[in-house]
Amino acid sequence: MSIPTPPAEPTAQDAPASSASNPKQKRMLVLATTAVGALLVGGVAGWGVTASQMAPQITELQKDNKDVSSDLAKMTKLHDQLAEEQDQVISEYTDKLADLTTDEAAVQAREDAVKAREDKVAIVEASSFSAGVLMVGTDVAPGVYRTSGVSDCYYAWKRGTGSGADIIDNNIADGTATVTLKQGDVFESSSRCGTWTKIG
After folding, report:
1. What angle is formed at CA 189 by the lines to CA 184 and CA 192, rounded to 5 degrees?
2. For residues 148 and 178, is the Cβ–Cβ distance under 8 A?
3. Residues whose CB is less than 8 angstroms from the CB of residue 100 and which lie 6 or more positions away in sequence, other chains included
4. Contact 195, 128 (CB under 8 A)
5. Who is most buried in 64, 104, 128, 170, counting CB within 10 A?
């Protein structure tokens, strides 16, 4: 009586290339391994081979299954580490971006303040002015101003900048007019006065 030839042992080339990278494929590999083991054990009676003779093959399959499980665990751990590092990098980038945004806003605020002071200085240090109501020290620098070649030039010192502000002193000049403006004075000049030029 001839003994049937046992089926060929599965090799590494027979297994799917990505079996360790997919949990579903891993479960399929475990089931396949179990099925092969059961087939081997169940078929030994027909082949005249004992279970103890098949034990090395079964052990090898079980070892391969453990190796696959170990590889999967390592890959899962590595994935978790990479995800954690990615979250940390994103968090640090977000914090730095927030700091840069805050710094940019602070720089812009300082630049605006400097420009406002420069504009104010430019106005205060102006060497001449024309018609209007001016605050000395804010709109024009204190000093001695002169205008010439005028006719019916009306100018006045007032208690405020409003249209109903009281007049402290006023004058109407022809030809040349000279005034001394002090810090805090409110000075009004008509268009007939032309341009007042700082002379001292």
Report:
1. 165
2. no
3. none
4. yes
5. 64
Output the six-digit token pair for 184.
């805090």
- The type of residue at 8 is A
pLDDT tens digits, 62-121: 787 888 888 888 899 889 999 989 998 998 888 888 888 888 888 888 887 776 666 555
Going by their DSSP bridges, the two strands 167-181 and 128-129 should be labelled as: unpaired
Spatial CA neighbour of 154 closest among 194, 197, 184: 194
CB 22 within 8 A of CB 61: no
What contacts 188, CB < 8 A, 6 or more positions away? 132, 133, 134, 155, 156, 157, 158
Q: pTM for this structure?
A: 0.41
Structure-block tokens of residue 133: 């109501």
